[in-house]
């Protein structure tokens, strides 16, 4: 079996690549970083390290890599022959890969090939739907009919800590053993098939997406944004501070209450979920930089995303949202000179004021109580900022 995976970063090699390999696929990576392409092709293998197994090395074989810059013809040919197509390029970058993928899918359609499962394994709500929209709107411009004829576009929920380190001058993935990959089974080409081993297959993906994004990612983001304000370099350092730990757990508990109401999760199960993830975040061997976790704040402040989404729903249900509001406020103070989104947010606040910025990025209106609590927290956090 053959897989084409766009993106050979930490998630690409350390998460999706590993699962595809263990499911019996030969993998073709599509990767813009020429050094990674050359390293993979030198041996047709790569190594990853499992953090909580004392950095046990695992070698992934039967892999190759192509550059979309210089080897698009080879990528198109690989898509024509693929049994599965996946991505992990960041949701914001899906439009950048759309033309190449569209050319490959059109060539596959012209060759009379069968439908293929296509999954965007990104840390965002319904990322495969985002990919479909990108395929419709790109220069190649696939039609809905073409996409239906050639692909099963299944959304997924992804969760794994995937970092990296430099070994012998090479960037290698370092992963947490625990992971969750939930696949929208009714969108697969064959809903009864389970193409990726170790994944869960669900009829209702919404509840899993929201549990992951609104609980795991909200707590992670709160740790990063507040951690930076308190002068912490890593999430682990931040969560060693009892004040930040309380805030991070608080965001997760507020989101959990929403999910109990909305989907019928059991409160005890979500408390276990919180405890398990806090244990993951605080694992001593991890060094998860706040700059990495907090990056792309515009996307993370979006109306349906990890902080604003549960906060607005909590407000609608009449539930507490003080911890979520504080994390949202902290996101507006996030500074990363290597992150275009962080720079844009800071420039917008300087030019227009925090009041306009809150509504501009979150769509939270100024006449709501949630807006007032966020604004109050922002002004208070200005005095904390290191």
TrEMBL record:
<dbReference type="Pfam" id="PF08125">
    <property type="entry name" value="Mannitol_dh_C"/>
</dbReference>
<dbReference type="InterPro" id="IPR023028">
    <property type="entry name" value="Mannitol_1_phos_5_DH"/>
</dbReference>
<dbReference type="InterPro" id="IPR013118">
    <property type="entry name" value="Mannitol_DH_C"/>
</dbReference>
<protein>
    <recommendedName>
        <fullName>Mannitol-1-phosphate 5-dehydrogenase</fullName>
        <ecNumber>1.1.1.17</ecNumber>
    </recommendedName>
</protein>
<dbReference type="GO" id="GO:0005829">
    <property type="term" value="C:cytosol"/>
</dbReference>
<dbReference type="InterPro" id="IPR013328">
    <property type="entry name" value="6PGD_dom2"/>
</dbReference>
<dbReference type="Pfam" id="PF01232">
    <property type="entry name" value="Mannitol_dh"/>
</dbReference>
<comment type="similarity">
    <text>Belongs to the mannitol dehydrogenase family.</text>
</comment>
<feature type="domain" description="Mannitol dehydrogenase N-terminal">
    <location>
        <begin position="1"/>
        <end position="190"/>
    </location>
</feature>
<dbReference type="GO" id="GO:0008926">
    <property type="term" value="F:mannitol-1-phosphate 5-dehydrogenase activity"/>
</dbReference>
<feature type="binding site">
    <location>
        <begin position="3"/>
        <end position="14"/>
    </location>
    <ligand>
        <name>NAD(+)</name>
    </ligand>
</feature>
<dbReference type="InterPro" id="IPR008927">
    <property type="entry name" value="6-PGluconate_DH-like_C_sf"/>
</dbReference>
<keyword id="KW-0520">NAD</keyword>
<dbReference type="InterPro" id="IPR013131">
    <property type="entry name" value="Mannitol_DH_N"/>
</dbReference>
<dbReference type="InterPro" id="IPR036291">
    <property type="entry name" value="NAD(P)-bd_dom_sf"/>
</dbReference>
<keyword id="KW-0560">Oxidoreductase</keyword>
<dbReference type="GO" id="GO:0019592">
    <property type="term" value="P:mannitol catabolic process"/>
</dbReference>
<feature type="domain" description="Mannitol dehydrogenase C-terminal">
    <location>
        <begin position="204"/>
        <end position="364"/>
    </location>
</feature>
